[in-house]
Design brief:
Structural class: mainly alpha
Shape: globular
Low-confidence stretches: none
Distance between the termini: 11 Å
CATH architecture: Orthogonal Bundle
Radius of gyration: 10 Å
Largest sheet: none
CATH superfamily: Winged helix-like DNA-binding domain superfamily/Winged helix DNA-binding domain
Helix content: over 70%
Number of helices: 4
Number of domains: 1
């Protein structure tokens, strides 16, 4: 999984909202959503929560 997707999932796993993630990373909210969706697609997950759980269980977060 690319680093940009990992950074987004990590911040979301810590409880940050999309707008907070965007501010912290200096990107738009749309880009945050796109990266979260890409992470889901990469991992074969339906939701961001599922992607976060998968990434934690497999040592990516």
């Amino acid at each position: 999984m690319p680093d940009d997707q990992v950074r987004v999932l990590r911040l979301m796993a810590e409880g940050d909202t999309i707008d907070v993630v965007a501010r912290k990373l200096g990107i738009s909210e749309r880009t945050v959503r796109r990266r979260a969706r890409a992470a889901c697609d990469t991992l074969g997950c339906e939701t961001t929560i599922e992607a976060i759980v998968w990434a934690v269980r497999h040592g990516h977060l």
